[in-house]
TrEMBL record:
It holds the Pfam family CcmB. Required for the export of heme to the periplasm for the biogenesis of c-type cytochromes. It comes from Salinicola corii. Its main location: membrane. This is Heme exporter protein B. PANTHER family: CYTOCHROME C BIOGENESIS B-RELATED, HEME EXPORTER PROTEIN B. NCBIfam families: ccmB. GO terms for cellular component: plasma membrane. The gene is ccmB.
Length: 240
């Protein structure tokens, strides 16, 4: 009986310790991001340049741009997310912080999840908020804006989680950016299909719910599996 009481008393303390570890790592990532403000603007600038160049290269006709807008905006957001993934673990690997994380008493998957969460909030969420503004340049119908924001919010979370696995595997390589793209781009295809499909369905007057539900299911699966895969990949990179 005493052992049961002791275990029940330790459980809240253990949960509080895990939560404090997550918050400490999350705050550290936000503090680092504040010191590197230009890195946060690079994906947004890349997204804006891609969207602005497409009408010049294809045609300025509003009807043609409206047809390709869902897929174009989603592809541009996907590439912008990919652009920011190469630096997710590289600076920590260079200064030894990753090794300290692996030796920490806190679970490494939890610390990895904190880094991924910060990356999504600082990169994915701004992209989801800015892409509808760029949709005006592509004559995106008004019925697609809300679904576009929702699909990108879910999709960029999945992209961060999946991309973190590739970033962890290639963190120790001198030219890991190219290999990172080759590793994660095939895994991004379902996210792209469901995300762009939801926006297209909303524009055509259909039901976007099934595609959004599938996007949410992908995000849930990635959330459950990716932190452990990232932790294992980091251990491989550190011991390699």
């Amino acid at each position: 009986m005493n052992r049961v009481r002791l275990a029940s008393a330790e459980s809240p303390a253990r949960d509080a310790g895990l939560w404090n570890g997550f918050l400490a790592q999350f705050r550290r990532e936000l503090a680092i991001a504040r010191r590197r403000g230009s890195d946060l603007l690079n994906p947004l600038m890349f997204l804006a340049l891609v969207v602005m160049l497409f009408p010049l290269g294809i045609s300025p006709r509003p009807d043609l741009l409206a047809d390709i807008a869902p897929g174009l905006l989603w592809v541009a957001a996907l590439l912008a997310m990919l652009l920011s993934l190469d630096t997710l673990f590289r600076s920590d690997f260079a200064d030894g912080s990753l090794e300290q994380m692996s030796l920490s008493p806190r679970p490494l998957p939890l610390l990895c999840l904190a880094k991924i969460t910060a990356h999504w909030l600082l990169t994915g969420v701004p992209l989801a908020l800015c892409v509808p503004l760029l949709g005006v340049m592509l004559s995106l119908p008004a019925t697609g804006y809300l679904v576009l924001m929702l699909s990108l919010a879910l999709g960029t979370a999945t992209l961060s989680l999946i991309g973190a696995i590739g970033a962890a595997l290639t963190v120790g390589l001198p030219r890991g950016g190219v290999l990172l793209s080759l590793l994660v781009l095939p895994l991004y295809i379902p996210v792209l299909i469901f995300g762009a499909g939801a926006v297209q369905a909303a524009i055509e007057g259909g039901i976007a719910g099934p595609a959004l539900a599938l996007s949410g299911a992908l995000a849930a699966i990635a959330l459950a599996a990716a932190p452990f895969a990232v932790a294992a990949a980091l251990r491989i990179s550190l011991n390699g």
